[in-house]
Design a protein that fits this description.
With 364 residues, the chain is mainly beta. The chain has helices at 2-30, 152-157; strands at residues 54-68, 73-90, 93-103, 106-118, 123-131, 161-171, 177-184, 201-210, 214-223, 230-241, 244-255, 263-275, 283-293, 314-324, 331-342, 355-363. It is globular, with a radius of gyration of 23 Å.
């Protein structure tokens, strides 16, 4: 019943947005603004030419060194080697295709979508493969991250890419609001060809911005990774102004039929920039983060059909300093220390233990 109600809410929201857009288009065609009416004493303007096909190439390389003092072991790793093509084919149509040649050593196709922009880009329809609109931190690209390693929300709990379609509507001047909702296969990135479903996954996200400094995000998502539905609810906010970025986010994960205890995930951090006048070193950023993950299951059942904890409960405290060698998130050298805290009976994963991380990130 809950799943049906949430699906009905999503479909109702999309219907309202489409109806409002259609009414706006009809109203503008019947009653055009005075500025668009021809004046008797003016010369007709030359029609604007439609922009030609445009292509933008971007890339992100993240290479890092990690050392685990408790184990006395270290490693080098290329965390990301992403390349993307994006641009437009008409004023109304955009596209993007992105691939990662080294996503933890694997080649993955990440984004491949087409987007239709309507009503001066306030209404957008997107179809293809994309990151599901959900959370704040999980929606950041690698070059936009503040720390060398992602938060538990961005990595373990809220990191979802899928194939589907979304509709977003932006409005408001004093308080800009963006509503976005979408339906998705639930097949993930590699299982599309023979995947058919009677129940789509869905995600809904609302973003509000106050005083040009405070951003509030509320989102919910339903997934079905294996045998049971999983519903996730996320609330996050951040303050960003000149030299400060302060952020906090909470995610709740519920498993259908009580198949696994609910999961709580927390991420909170602060960043303070220190601008410099040097041509080589533009800024130094001081960062501190706390995040928490209770016993967590991906939702994929084990051999006996039961859901097991894939990630044990843990707390983590991260301190860091970032040396900005260019514009923000363009060329950063990040130094982090991560301290993990587990219960005595937990068995930590090899890569989820105390470590020193040095990462060099380049965005072009």
């Amino acid at each position: 019943m809950k799943r049906f109600a949430l699906s009905l809410i999503l479909l109702s929201m999309i219907s309202i947005l489409v109806t409002e857009a259609a009414q706006t288009v009809a109203r503008d065609s019947l009653y055009p603004p005075a500025s668009t009416l021809p004046a008797a004493s003016t010369v007709p303007a030359t029609p604007a030419k439609e922009p030609t096909f445009m292509v933008q190439l971007h890339g992100t390389v993240r290479a890092k060194f990690e050392y685990q003092p408790d184990l006395g072991k270290s490693r080098f790793e290329v965390r990301n080697a992403r390349f993307s093509l994006s641009g437009s084919v008409t004023p109304l149509v955009n596209y993007k295709a992105e691939i990662d040649l080294s996503d933890e050593g694997s080649i993955k196709m990440l984004d491949a979508y087409a987007r239709l922009n309507m009503l001066q880009r306030r209404l957008r329809f997107t179809i293809g493969q994309m990151r599901v609109p959900f959370t704040i931190d999980a929606h950041r690209s690698p070059h936009e991250q503040f720390f060398a390693n992602r938060s538990f929300i961005a990595k373990q709990a809220g990191n979802v890419r899928d194939v589907g379609a979304t509709l977003s509507w932006s409005f408001g001047r004093r308080v800009p609001v963006t509503l976005e909702g979408g339906l998705f296969n639930g097949s993930g990135l590699t299982n599309q060809k023979d995947y058919w479903t009677q129940s789509f996954n869905y995600s809904v996200k609302a973003t509000l911005r106050f005083w040009e400094r405070v951003n509030l995000s509320l989102s919910l998502q339903k997934t079905h990774p294996d045998r049971v539905d999983i519903h996730m609810y996320d609330l996050g906010a951040y303050y960003e102004h000149r030299l400060w970025h302060i952020e906090a986010e909470y995610l709740r994960k519920e498993y259908a039929s009580g198949s696994f205890p609910g999961v709580n995930v927390v991420d909170a951090f602060v960043c303070r920039d220190l601008p410099l006048r040097s041509r080589a070193l533009r800024r130094i950023s001081l960062l501190a983060r706390y995040d928490y993950l209770s016993d967590h299951s991906t939702g994929v059942a084990g051999p006996d059909g039961e859901l097991l904890a894939d990630d044990p409960e843990r707390h983590r405290v991260t301190g860091g300093v970032t040396f900005g060698l260019g514009l923000p998130f363009q060329a950063d050298l990040r130094l982090n220390y991560e301290a993990y805290f587990y219960r005595a009976t937990a068995t930590p994963a090899l890569s989820e233990q105390d470590k020193i991380v040095m990462e060099f990130m380049v965005r072009f």
